[in-house]
Amino acid sequence: MADYKAPLRDMRFVLNEVFEVSKLWAELPALAEVVDADTASAILEEAGKVTAGSIAPLNRSGDEEGCSWDNGAVKTPAGFPEAYQTYAEGGWVGVGGSPEFGGMGMPKVIGAQVEEMVNSANLSFGLYPMLTAGACLSILNHASEELKAQYLPNMYAGVWAGSMCLTEPHAGTDLGIIRTKAEPQADGSYKISGTKIFITGGEHDLTENIIHLVLAKLPDAPAGPKGISLFIVPKVMVNADGSLGENNALGCGSIEHKMGIKASATCVMNFDGAIGYLVGEVNKGLNAMFTMMNYERLGVGIQGLALGERSYQSAIEYARERIQSRAPTGPVAKDKAADPIIVHPDVRRMLLTMKALNEGGRAFSSYVAMQLDTAKYSEDKATAKRADELVALLTPVAKAFLTDMALETTVHGQQIFGGHGFIREWGQEQLVRDCRITQIYEGTNGIQSLDLMGRKIVGSGGSFYKHLADEIKVFVASADANLDEFTKPLAAAVQNLDELTAWVLDRAKGNPNEIGAASVEYLHVFGYTAYAYMWALMARAALGKEGQDEFYASKLGTARFYFARLLPRIHSLSASVKAGSESLYLLDAAQF
Ligand SMILES: Cc1cc2nc3c(=O)[nH]c(=O)nc-3n(C[C@H](O)[C@H](O)[C@H](O)COP(=O)(O)OP(=O)(O)OC[C@H]3O[C@@H](n4cnc5c(N)ncnc54)[C@H](O)[C@@H]3O)c2cc1C
């Protein structure tokens, strides 16, 4: 496997040339104070060094060794505790955290690129700080001032970690039926009892304390999602002076043996009357969780992108070196027994598909991150509201499309290695195995598609979608004629999506099954169209500069490949959407 190198050139291109992000930062006072293009560049460069130098080398050994459980204690693979300490001491856990509590206060668009690097280096490792940052976000937005002061500084500093405890054996997608109980105590705290499963980083040896965010129900809570509350439940109790006290009444019953991310501890957590503290209001726990989920879901999409990038870096190196057969048009490497496989059309198809989907995904995730920053920091209410609605619309697309594309890209990366792609020592098979979970956790991709179509498209009567469609139409209308080769197919793709959206909105009125029947393919049409917008923006930023630097020539070539070979996928997907739900219900359950 090639050594990981952070794609800093492309990251800077996206930030500075495609989105001119410093202009956005200058308009948002809270960000103008902490970041400019130079600071961002220095941060990304440093993140590139730490992820490539300290974390990537543990990826394969972590996969081989995995985590182990012994009588409630969980050991992470060799090197993980030391690497975590290095990462935490660099301030990376709190990169997007509030400066009031010791975080670095960086915009999400920078945090997103740091996340890409750490996850490319080692997804299992990246999950520990990611869960901590997600827990911090819920605490920051919903907990009392006292709880924030008590927990956030040590969490941002990476001295304590966080976990998210939602799932139970009988309740994954449908959290409304969880059974974990929270009994109010006279002192205002709660006693939490129940079993949570699949808890990432529920127990480990990286930090002295783990702060669990737990969903539970009060005894008199209404049934369903409206009866769920959120609690901070520390592994080790925290005294008033901030020192650590006794162990809380909770423990890790076992860890799972998994297909991938083997160095990430996936824990069964038992809460036996553990002391917890309410975050936000009673019965509003899911709302508090959603704050975190928009960030986490984008983060999971970025995990997919990260794996695709790592796979591409190895695949391109291999395709240049591996010699096999002659080019169809005649020998290229005449001094060798055969040509490098990069000459073959099918290998080029796979490499370019990987490159186009990775770079499209990097631009798209940065675009969504910029909307998150605008929603959070804009002082203009209408601007913040529009950005917030775009975030709501695009988050399920970012989570599901980036990870679905990541499975395609990592499989291509494996395929380019031929039989060696199937052999562990080359590393490509690990990326495929690690990738699969990104389509499942944090809400399966099927559920993301339902969220897009049901809540965001139908639920807003198409108004959230209109923000994006209008923005693309303004871009197309104002673009120079020399961009026609990109803007014309983009305009046609948006028109197709407009029609498809109207079609689904109409059909959903008559038959509730239509939404679920259309949703996955619809999300893919949406994703390819959104990437077409990204590729047109990237082409605009590169056009005219191709003589200066190969980077721009490569960008334009990849843009042309995207429009010629990948965007047309929307036609077959749209036809599937329009086939409706009828054919899904021709068999009764016994006929399967
Ligand atoms: C490695 C790993 C790490 C995880 N980390 C965490 C964590 O840190 N914290 C945490 O709380 N959880 C975590 N999870 C749990 C994860 O989020 C859930 O597994 C996931 O949300 C799916 O829930 P489920 O497994 O119960 O599947 P189910 O909900 O039983 O779903 C089964 C299938 O049915 C489909 N389905 C369900 N309902 C519908 C519907 N209404 N319409 C259409 N299709 C539907 C699903 O899409 C899926 O394909 C983790 C899981 C794993 C494997």
Automatic annotation (TrEMBL):
All residue ranges annotated as the Acyl-CoA dehydrogenase/oxidase C-terminal domain in the record: 283-451
Q: Tell me the organism.
A: Ectopseudomonas alcaliphila
Q: What chemistry does it catalyse, as a reaction equation?
A: 3-(methylsulfanyl)propanoyl-CoA + oxidized [electron-transfer flavoprotein] + H(+) = 3-(methylsulfanyl)acryloyl-CoA + reduced [electron-transfer flavoprotein]
Do you know which InterPro entries this protein is assigned to? Acyl-CoA_dh-like_C_dom (IPR025878), Acyl-CoA_Oxase/DH_mid-dom (IPR006091), Acyl-CoA_Oxase/DH_mid-dom_sf (IPR046373), AcylCo_DH-like_C (IPR036250), AcylCo_DH/oxidase_C (IPR009075), AcylCoA_DH/ox_N (IPR013786), AcylCoA_DH/ox_N_sf (IPR037069), AcylCoA_DH/oxidase_NM_dom_sf (IPR009100)
Instruction: State if Oxidoreductase is listed as a keyword.
Output: yes
Residue span, Acyl-CoA dehydrogenase/oxidase N-terminal domain: 80-158
Q: Any idea what this protein is called?
A: 3-methylmercaptopropionyl-CoA dehydrogenase
Q: Which segments constitute the Acyl-CoA oxidase/dehydrogenase middle domain?
A: 163-272
Stored Gene3D superfamilies: Acyl-CoA dehydrogenase/oxidase, N-terminal domain (1.10.540.10), Butyryl-CoA Dehydrogenase, subunit A, domain 2 (2.40.110.10), Butyryl-CoA Dehydrogenase, subunit A, domain 3 (1.20.140.10)
Q: Which family does it belong to?
A: Belongs to the acyl-CoA dehydrogenase family.
Q: SUPFAM superfamilies, alphabetically?
A: Acyl-CoA dehydrogenase C-terminal domain-like, Acyl-CoA dehydrogenase NM domain-like
EC assignment: 1.3.99.41
